[in-house]
Amino acid sequence: MKHLSAIVAIGAATALSACMDDNGGAATSAAPTAAEQACLRDVTATTNNPDVVLLGSEFSEAGTLVRVGVGPDRAPWQCIAYTDGSTAGIESLTNEGTL
After folding, report:
1. Bridge partner residues of 28 (DSSP)
2. Cβ(63)–Cβ(88) under 8 Å?
3. How does pLDDT run across 32-86, given as a tens digit for each residue?
4. Nearest residue to 78 via CA among 64, 93, 63
5. Nearest CA-CA partner of 66 in 50, 82, 47, 51
6. Of 25, 27, 39, 57, whose CB count within 10 A is highest?
7. Contact 78, 89 (CB under 8 A)
8. In angstroms, what CA-CA distances link 74 with 62, 71, 79?
Protein backbone atom coordinates (compact mmCIF):
# COMPACT_ATOMS: atom_id res chain seq x y z
CA MET A 1 0.00 0.00 0.00
CA LYS A 2 2.89 2.37 0.75
CA HIS A 3 4.26 1.76 -2.73
CA LEU A 4 0.88 2.64 -4.30
CA SER A 5 0.68 5.86 -2.26
CA ALA A 6 4.14 6.89 -3.49
CA ILE A 7 3.12 6.24 -7.10
CA VAL A 8 -0.05 8.29 -6.68
CA ALA A 9 1.92 11.15 -5.08
CA ILE A 10 4.46 11.14 -7.91
CA GLY A 11 1.67 11.10 -10.49
CA ALA A 12 -0.09 14.01 -8.79
CA ALA A 13 3.14 16.03 -8.64
CA THR A 14 3.78 15.37 -12.32
CA ALA A 15 0.25 16.40 -13.26
CA LEU A 16 0.49 19.60 -11.23
CA SER A 17 3.85 20.51 -12.74
CA ALA A 18 2.21 20.43 -16.16
CA CYS A 19 -0.19 23.12 -14.92
CA MET A 20 2.49 25.70 -14.19
CA ASP A 21 2.65 28.79 -16.38
CA ASP A 22 5.89 30.49 -17.40
CA ASN A 23 5.65 32.89 -14.47
CA GLY A 24 5.93 30.07 -11.93
CA GLY A 25 2.32 30.26 -10.81
CA ALA A 26 -0.39 27.70 -11.24
CA ALA A 27 -2.14 28.02 -14.58
CA THR A 28 -5.90 28.36 -14.41
CA SER A 29 -8.72 28.15 -16.86
CA ALA A 30 -9.94 31.59 -15.78
CA ALA A 31 -10.89 34.13 -18.38
CA PRO A 32 -8.20 36.58 -19.50
CA THR A 33 -7.80 39.69 -17.36
CA ALA A 34 -8.94 43.06 -18.68
CA ALA A 35 -5.33 43.89 -19.63
CA GLU A 36 -4.93 40.59 -21.49
CA GLN A 37 -8.26 41.11 -23.26
CA ALA A 38 -7.20 44.61 -24.35
CA CYS A 39 -4.00 43.25 -25.91
CA LEU A 40 -5.79 40.34 -27.56
CA ARG A 41 -8.24 42.86 -29.04
CA ASP A 42 -5.58 45.27 -30.26
CA VAL A 43 -3.18 42.62 -31.60
CA THR A 44 -6.15 41.18 -33.52
CA ALA A 45 -6.81 44.63 -35.01
CA THR A 46 -3.13 45.30 -35.77
CA THR A 47 -2.54 41.95 -37.47
CA ASN A 48 -6.00 41.76 -39.05
CA ASN A 49 -6.03 38.14 -37.87
CA PRO A 50 -8.69 36.95 -35.41
CA ASP A 51 -6.75 33.73 -34.66
CA VAL A 52 -5.01 34.89 -31.47
CA VAL A 53 -4.22 33.14 -28.20
CA LEU A 54 -2.84 34.35 -24.91
CA LEU A 55 0.70 33.05 -24.43
CA GLY A 56 1.34 34.75 -21.10
CA SER A 57 1.57 38.03 -19.25
CA GLU A 58 3.61 39.82 -16.63
CA PHE A 59 1.79 42.28 -14.40
CA SER A 60 3.36 45.61 -13.49
CA GLU A 61 1.87 48.75 -11.96
CA ALA A 62 3.27 50.66 -14.94
CA GLY A 63 1.61 48.36 -17.47
CA THR A 64 1.07 44.67 -18.06
CA LEU A 65 3.28 43.01 -20.68
CA VAL A 66 1.16 40.54 -22.63
CA ARG A 67 2.44 37.91 -25.06
CA VAL A 68 0.05 36.83 -27.81
CA GLY A 69 0.30 34.03 -30.37
CA VAL A 70 -1.06 34.91 -33.81
CA GLY A 71 -2.21 32.55 -36.54
CA PRO A 72 -1.92 28.78 -36.75
CA ASP A 73 1.82 28.89 -36.03
CA ARG A 74 1.23 31.16 -32.98
CA ALA A 75 3.70 33.79 -34.17
CA PRO A 76 4.69 35.69 -31.02
CA TRP A 77 3.59 39.28 -30.52
CA GLN A 78 3.74 41.47 -27.45
CA CYS A 79 1.73 44.38 -26.16
CA ILE A 80 1.63 46.58 -23.07
CA ALA A 81 -1.81 47.09 -21.52
CA TYR A 82 -2.76 49.84 -19.09
CA THR A 83 -5.44 50.00 -16.41
CA ASP A 84 -7.52 52.45 -18.48
CA GLY A 85 -7.95 49.81 -21.23
CA SER A 86 -5.46 51.35 -23.62
CA THR A 87 -2.48 49.53 -25.10
CA ALA A 88 0.91 50.43 -26.56
CA GLY A 89 4.05 48.81 -27.86
CA ILE A 90 2.27 46.28 -30.05
CA GLU A 91 5.03 44.50 -31.93
CA SER A 92 5.96 41.22 -33.51
CA LEU A 93 8.64 39.22 -31.72
CA THR A 94 9.49 37.33 -34.92
CA ASN A 95 12.90 38.06 -36.37
CA GLU A 96 11.65 39.23 -39.74
CA GLY A 97 15.18 39.55 -41.08
CA THR A 98 15.42 35.75 -41.27
CA LEU A 99 12.14 35.19 -43.11
Report:
1. none
2. yes
3. 999 999 999 999 999 999 999 999 999 999 999 999 999 999 999 999 999 999 9
4. 93
5. 82
6. 39
7. yes
8. 27, 5, 15
Pairing of strands 52-58, 64-70: antiparallel
- Determine the Cα–Cα distance for residues 86 and 98; give it in Å rounded to an integer: 31
Three state DSSP letters for the chain:
CHHHHHHHHHHHHHHHHCCECCCCCECCCCCCCHHHHHHHHHHHHHHCCCCEEEEEEECCCCCEEEEEEECCCCEEEEEEECCCCCEEEEEECCCHHHC
Dist CA 77 CA 26 (whole Å): 23
Q: What are phi and psi of 68, to 5 degrees?
A: -125, 140
